[in-house]
Amino acid sequence: MMRNNGKLIIVAGPSGSGKGTIENAVMERFPDIHFSVSVTTRPRRKYEIEGEHYYFISKAEFHKRIEQGELVEWQEVYSKNGHLYGTLRSYIDNALETGQHLLLDLDIKGGINVKKAYPESSVSIFIEPPSLEAVEQRLINRGTDNPDQIKIRMERMPEEMELGQQFDYQIVNSDLNEAINRFKKILEKDVYHQ
Ligand code: 5GP
């Protein structure tokens, strides 16, 4: 197989869009795509592994990294109690230099910023829920947010959907298999040049 240059596959979408499920399916299908490991100040969840899911660091450490220019972008993610998340420049540059493809799961603004920083080496994909009602139902079914939190999320949706139009591609996740297939087709065209 011809060796490709490394590509950044940026994925974002409102919560309840089902982006995580799509990402998992895609990464299973393309084992040469690696997950970009970000830094975060959020506490580690029990099942998470340091350096595999995130690098878990303190707020002070996070600010030091900002000052030292180590982050391509960073955001305070409102839906995560204001925890900080940032993309490591070294992680991205190492991957690109060695021809490795990376999948970046970012919040929407972070996704736009990474695309701006690496316009030629990235493809950005926005996962859209089929409707506002579908998101509300998914959030209720998931059971991780209380009614007030769900209301706040729903109020932010129109702005998020608007920002999503800045991505290279939008995939409406009304049928999971169709959404995964569309994602694969984008990769075949823009990453694998088939
Ligand atoms: P979680 O805490 O559930 O792992 O992720 C919370 C949110 O932070 C998700 O929407 C995820 O996409 C986003 N996120 C994870 N890493 C980064 C990052 O490095 N930069 C930005 N901007 N968002 C991130």
Could you walk me through the main structural features you see in this protein, from its secondary elements to its overall organization?
The chain has 194 residues and is α/β, with parallel strands linked by helices. The chain has a single domain, classed as Rossmann fold, CATH 3.40.50.300. Helices cover 43% and strands 22% of the residues. The chain has seven helices and nine strands; from the N terminus they run βαβββαββαβαβααβα. The strands form two sheets. It has a five-stranded parallel beta sheet with strand order 2-7-1-8-9, sandwiched between helices. A four-stranded mixed beta sheet has the order 4-3-6-5. Strand 5 and strand 6 form a beta hairpin. Helix 1 packs across helix 7 and helix 5 crosses helix 6. It is globular and about 45 Å long. The N and C termini lie close together (11 Å). The mean pLDDT is 94. Bound molecules: guanosine-5'-monophosphate (5GP). Guanosine-5'-monophosphate binds next to strand 5 and strand 6.
